[in-house]
Design a protein that fits this description.
Length: about 375
């Protein structure tokens, strides 16, 4: 194969890939469910246990407790598992509750062999929960008025064994703005929602651990956190197990009712996503490398092609073909940004976002080589 024919082949691959992403994103823009607030909350909504694993979350937990206890929801309990925190997380939570009996703060047991920290904490929370709906959420998720009722009402309508919600990501610094929205792109441009909801294919599943609402029966049937005790991306694996046992998985966008700011600077963004990215590629360095090269091809390659054409005497399809690919890439990024309430103008910086994700992938591979796994909250996750 000549260099010219290889170049054409790569251009065709990029074109087909971007056209597919744009088509999936357009379909999801039409069909992806979104939460809708119900005010006041219907009194018929069932009791729910809200479960938060918390390790060194003193900076977040107070606001989260206050917002959850302010929800106008008929019957719920709020359980926080203080997972060996050293910053007073449990006491901050109790102070924020101001004696509200709906809050219980549990002391976490020492990490059991074979378990990852969050999975062990969630397992303990599920065992302590009193109600038949189990809502796992994170300490940094902010629940706007009516959000709890909206989540439970959506599950009631869908009759899902597992409903997962994508909170609206609050992004402030450039590291957050350029990287965090790519997680929504990965779902909305690669996974048609109808396939996740209605097909039996286990791999056609996604979930966000920031909000997982299980029926107790569904949680037990899929094995719960015990079945994914050693998984870094336990949320996705739980969704896959739900489908594997023939239960209903449903997904929805938080539509601003649920919000979170996961990280606050580039260092936190880099480390946070490096923790998960290799697990998201089935713990295969080769697959992660292929993914990085693929995304460089489709999101950065067209820009290089357009620039190189300025200095070449004759380039196939220039400038129309690379311009078309650039427009398609920006459209995918912009459409998924619009769906998730992110800044549309940041779509123009997609090549920089892609390079930052390659940096994150490199850090994940270095952690694997140097430590045997990612480092998170003082623990090496092997």
């Amino acid at each position: 194969m000549t260099l010219a024919s290889l170049f054409v082949l790569l251009a065709i691959v990029a074109t087909v890939a971007l056209a597919g992403m744009l088509a999936v994103a357009a379909l999801n823009a039409i069909g992806f469910p979104r939460l809708a607030a119900a005010s006041p909350a219907p009194s018929s909504l069932p009791a729910v246990s809200v479960l938060i694993p918390a390790r060194n979350e003193a900076a977040n937990i107070g606001a989260t407790v206050r917002m959850l206890l302010a929800q106008s929801y008929p019957t719920f309990e709020l359980l926080i598992l203080d997972d060996q925190s050293t910053d007073g997380t449990g006491e901050v939570a109790r102070q924020a509750a101001a004696g509200d009996p709906r809050l219980r703060v549990l002391g976490g047991a020492p990490l059991a062999a074979g378990w990852l920290g969050k999975n062990w904490a969630c397992h303990q929370l599920a065992q302590a929960a009193r109600h038949d709906l189990l809502l796992f959420t994170d300490a940094d998720v902010r629940w706007q008025p009516g959000a709890l009722a909206a989540v439970v009402a959506h599950r009631q309508t869908s009759s899902a064994a597992l409903l997962t919600i994508w909170p609206t990501q609050v992004t402030v610094t450039w590291g957050e703005r350029l990287v965090a929205p790519l997680m929504a792109l990965a779902v909305l441009a690669y996974l048609p929602v109808w396939l996740a909801h209605h097909s039996p294919y286990v791999l056609a599943a996604a979930a966000n651990g920031q909000c997982l609402l299980f029926t107790r029966r569904g949680y037990a049937q899929c094995g719960g956190h015990s079945a994914v005790r050693g998984e870094i991306i336990e949320d996705v694996r739980l969704a896959q197990r739900v489908k594997a046992v023939g239960l209903a998985l449903r997904m929805a966008d938080g539509a601003g009712l649920l919000q979170t700011r996961m990280y606050h600077n580039w260092g936190e963004v880099r480390d946070g996503y490096a923790k998960n990215i290799l697990a998201g590629h089935w713990n295969s360095p080769a697959l992660l490398l292929f993914s990085a090269l693929f995304h460089l091809l489709v999101f950065v390659g067209p820009w290089l092609w357009l620039g190189a054409g300025l200095f070449a005497s004759e380039t196939l399809g220039w400038p129309q073909w690379p311009v078309a690919l650039i427009v398609m890439g920006i459209s995918v990024r912009g459409l998924t940004a619009a769906m998730t309430q992110q800044r549309l103008r940041d779509a123009l910086l997609l090549p920089i976002s892609t390079l930052l994700m390659c940096w994150i992938a490199t850090q994940a591979l270095w952690w694997r080589l140097r430590h045997g796994g990612p480092i998170w909250k003082g623990r090496v996750i092997r």
